[in-house]
Amino acid sequence: MKISVIGTGAYGLAISHSLAKKNNQISMWTENENLVSEFQKTGNLFSILPITLSNNLSITTDLKENLKNTKLIYIVTASKYIENICREIKPYYTSKIPICIASKGIDDKSNELLSDLVKNILNTSNIAVISGPTFAIDMANDEPVALAIGSKSIKAKNMVLKTLPNDSLKLRPTKDIIGIQLCGAIKNVIAIAAGILKGLGYSESTQAFLINESLHDIKHIIYYLGGNPKTILSFAGIGDLMLTCTSTKSRNYSFGYIIGNTNDIKQIKNYLKNNTVEGYYTLDTVYKLLKSKNINIELITTIYNIVYNYESPNSLANLLITKK
Q: Domains along the chain?
């Protein structure tokens, strides 16, 4: 079976590597001609991840070729590119082909969940989303990892469950496609806050304080936006939150650390220029979305004011003590 993977960053490559274990033909798509050249010369993409790739993987910059005769599509790009990707996919897409979204975030133009954005542009309900505590390098190295899969489409859910899980990757299904995506997006925002606390020199105890408080806030946001609050207990919730908020592998955490440690606007902007920090964009979108619905989440507002309005990072620790 042919499977298309849209996006050949570290996570896209890790997912392609996992999919290739079941002897499907995996076609990866990228805009980067250099990656195609590297793959043609070496059969690998060591510039992305230091792993040996299966011979049933291929890579192309031709989206039409990537999608030709495909039975399943995985979208694994930064959330801000999803709209354009879907519009480029549309001429070659039929609504019967299931789509699995592995990207995390909320569309910054429409304030839509990515599943809604994909559904509206491609006119399909065959959509699943995956999210959970997995760094690309760990998945690629075949370490035991787990993801939550959210879908209301039986076809999409079954196709993902058939193709992605393996002897080192576990998937646990749920119908709460809203909660899975909100957890996956907002945990990046909380990871920035965790990095800020670490940069300020606070202990693991204070970071655990933050994580515990954020669990309650994310649960409330899920409820207010129509999801199941219990999803906070899933791999996409507490699992991913714990991982992203405690590891320097997370660019969101590292970004927050720079804010807390230096509070230097030049260094902060330089990091954003050279790294994709999903939480930075998600923070702006979530803040505006909550504000438009008159939902007040003090923690989100405080992080927003630190990151976007350059308020003192110390206000975060102060909030934890005073927050009701």
A: 2-175 (3.40.50.720), 178-322 (1.10.1040.10)
What confidence tens digit (pLDDT) does each residue in 149-187 have? 999 999 999 999 999 999 999 999 999 999 999 999 999
Question: What ranges make up the beta strands (E) of the chain?
Answer: 2-6, 25-29, 57-60, 72-75, 99-101, 127-131, 145-151, 169-174
Q: Are 58 and 13 in contact (CB under 8 A)?
A: no
% of the chain at pLDDT higher than 90: 95
pLDDT in tens, 236-252: 999 999 999 999 889 99
- Give the chain's length: 324
Q: Whole-model pTM above 0.90?
A: yes
The dihedral region occupied by 132, where left means phi > 0, alpha psi between -120 and 50, and beta the remainder, is left
Determine the distance from the C-alpha atom of residue 287 to the mean position of all C-alpha atoms in its chain, rounded to a whole number: 18
Contacts of 306 (CB under 8 A, 6+ apart): 196, 259, 312, 313, 315, 316
The answer to whether 278 and 114 are in contact (CB under 8 A) is no
The C-alpha atoms of residue 281 and residue 308 are separated, in whole angstroms, by 10
SS3 breakdown of the chain: % helix, strand, coil, rounded to 5? Answer: 55, 15, 30
How many other CB atoms sit within 10 Å of the CB of residue 309?
Answer: 7
Phi, psi of 8 (to 5 degrees): -125, 40
Tens-place pLDDT, residues 86-130: 999 999 999 999 999 999 999 988 889 999 999 999 999 999 999
Rg of the chain's alpha carbons, rounded to an integer?
A: 19
